[in-house]
Amino acid sequence: MQKLSTRHLLGIKDLTPADIELIMATAREFKEVINRPIKKVPSLRDVTIANVFFENSTRTRLSFELAEKRLSADTLNFSASGSSVKKGETLLDTVNNILAMKVDMIVMRHASPGAPHFLAKHIKANIVNAGDGTHEHPTQALLDSFSMREKLGADLTGKKVAIIGDILHSRVALSNILALKKQGAEVTLCGPSTLIPRYITDLGVNVSHDVKKTLAWCDVANVLRIQLERQQIKYFPSLREYSLYFGINKKMLDDLNKEIIVMHPGPINRGVELSSDAADSHHSIILDQVENGVAVRMAVLYLLAGQN
Ligand code: CP
């Protein structure tokens, strides 16, 4: 069995291009499995996985849970709300108590960047980062790459990917940039200058503030949510003005003299970064991303379990 170069998935930063290829190939096999009448395989029987979520989630949490069930793992679900975290229990105490129940793997979402990296230094279980603050969301970037490959072909070398929206507060943006650059794609970030980190071009990406030109350039537009909950100050005058200058609607896509793919990690602010007619149009592969998330997360869990 081929192996990953790491026993945790903390970020795309730690993956080699060969790791990404292995995850993509394994996810292709699992996608076939989950489209069969019998969707379950015994690969992770006797493996116990805890999904430990300190921040809200719909897609990532359900997708990991389903991936674990499809692999026949035993699962525990923990939400900070309603737990003893509210009584002041620390992250390390919480996780060590979960591990005392003989848990093999932790899937964790946390509002603090670096929280899964901290845990990886203190505990023995495999850790999967399901989103750490504004830092990384590696499985989202992997499922995004998988979805792009399905539409554009297995080789993303030279493919033009635009990431449009609130780059500053987005863990999806950083993980996508790192994943796409490791696969040879060209990346342009587009948004108001206040929502683009100053030194981001050090990662080898282009920056644009013109959404129409960016759409005309790209093969893929990965549109990101405006994350108001992480914005302590005003980065633009109003949502209406943001939508006017950076929002994408179906007419803008129909008027391009080529087909592009529109993606969004969800949840969508309909009518802000993406209109409903664009989100629900034939240009959009948003629900394919969600379907692929299960196969990609099955691949990640299966490969990490094989490291032990
Ligand atoms: N894409 C994503 O992470 O969505 P959730 O916050 O619903 O998990």
Description:
The protein is α/β, with parallel strands linked by helices and 308 residues long. Helix content is 38%, strand content 15%. The chain is built from 11 helices and 9 strands. Strands 7-6-5-8-9 form a 5-stranded parallel sheet, with helices on both faces. It has a 4-stranded parallel sheet with strand order 2-1-3-4, sandwiched between helices. The longest helix has 20 residues, at 286-305. The protein is globular, with a radius of gyration of 19 Å. The two termini are 13 Å apart. The mean pLDDT is 96. It binds phosphoric acid mono(formamide)ester. Phosphoric acid mono(formamide)ester binds at residues 57-61, 131, 137, 140, 265-267.
Short recap of the structure:
By secondary structure, this protein is an alpha/beta fold. It has helices spanning 17-34, 59-70, 91-99, 115-122, 138-152, 171-182, 211-217, 239-246, 250-254, 276-279, 286-305, and strands at 48-53, 74-79, 105-110, 126-132, 160-164, 186-190, 206-208, 220-223, 261-263.
